[in-house]
Fold this protein.
Amino acid sequence: MRALIPTGRTGALVELGTASEPVPGPGEALVAVEAFSLNRPDFLYLAAGQGAYRPGIDAVGTVERAAADGSGPKAGQRVVLHLPGGGAAAERVAVPPGRLAVVPDGLETTVAAALPLAGMVALRLLRAAGDVRGRRLLATGVTGGVGLFLVQLAVAAGASVTAVARPDDPWQHLIEAGAKVIHTVEEAATGAYDVVLESVGGRTGSQAALKLRTGGLFLWFGQAGAEPIELDFFRLFEGGQGLTLRHFVHTEGGPDDSRDMAELLRLASSGQLRVELGHRGDWADTAAVLEKLARGRLKGKAVLTISA
């Protein structure tokens, strides 16, 4: 079957090639893939030369053959799928039922394909933050797919959200979603926030900790800038800013993503969750789109269709 294959070449990380046909286990469905979205881990794994990693963490397709043990969606049903190990950028893929959810009638394939990873990170981050009604949130590194979902979900839950975005990054969509946008973390008032959601690292992440109120929560969910955060005990002590630091990993809930994906599909289908698509195209364009993703120049998600 046709699939996207890693090349190991900078600037052209993947190309169309062939891969072995998947052989589903008794608890796996065979899905014919229609479209897949790209996520930052796709680029990171490919750029790092992580073995035979093939892209495609999130996708939409049709169940060609249901799981032999009777679990999960039935043959002919349209599904969204999430494969943390990649490989969905292919004509067919074997998927366990815990990584599948049925797509509601009327929801566009491109919208559904953009939801799983970014949406689940946002959904689970807010759960980790607790009840955010009436609370003030400061978020860094949220101009991509996760950020838009996070802002929408937080605002809908009653939170006030301030997002830190560089002037040359795409950020207007965050304002449209209900956030206030500032361009440096220094613009945020010291001690003004109940929760910091941090995913940049370096100076930005380190300074963000100083913006928490005493007893606030620092949720650390990424390090996009590659530099680690540095917390100065004595500086925090002088400001009286005792805080709780939590290293957030979105996979802590285990291998069953079906309920969270179903919730995201419901919200998108009812118009309560908007997906920003920065690119729609044929999967032959994947290498070029990965480079745009790496430079942070995509406003929203990229979805590629598997052509006949």
